[in-house]
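Exercise 7.
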Amino acid sequence: MDALWNMMEEICAKRFDKGSIHWVDVTYIEDPFNFYVRPTSYRKYLQELEAYKPHSIDQTEAVLGTTVIYKSKVIKSFIRGKILSIEPSNTFEIQSLDFGCVDKSVPLTEMFKPLFNSNHVGASVLSCKLAYCYPIGGVWNKQSIDAMKDYVGEERAQIKIMENNRDKYVVELVNSCPDDIAMMLIKTDYASFGFDVQKVSPLTSNADYGRFGLNIQKANPQTSKTD
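Solution. The predicted structure, written as tokens, is:
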């Protein structure tokens, strides 16, 4: 139980300011604009977070927002998650708090109470988006997503926080590849160079985000890494 309190204190204390650099595990990739990372310093807490009581939870306990341990089809393991919705078939949609993925159609028989109450421990993952790259044609295709997964692999990585926009961190992601992951995608024709520009209308104070992509597949860009 002390480990959970230590993790809660670490999560509260850790800052992800613009320009800061962190060692992470990439836990789940939906596409280059939607992926999750977890600081490597949190690894030591997972075993306690994922411990659960031996009996599945009761129907009355399965309410929205409840933290449970469930069998994830995505991660293929029992992990910690939060109930997002109750489906018509009386199964559940659950989002992992320590990996980021969403599982649908989870039955009650595969949902358990955490051994230790971790409701006070928030998500250990950060929702991220690669900086500087943009999908060719405006939509990330399967080939580009698979290429990112291949480049990321299973090794630890470093993120540099470039921006924090609406609960999503725009990051530079670096591992043992010759270039950062965004540039790897660009150089191998799985992405174009791109960025988001915030435009403020003179008639309103609301922000409107316009997206611009410049295809530089034939270029030979020079990049530098910041450690």
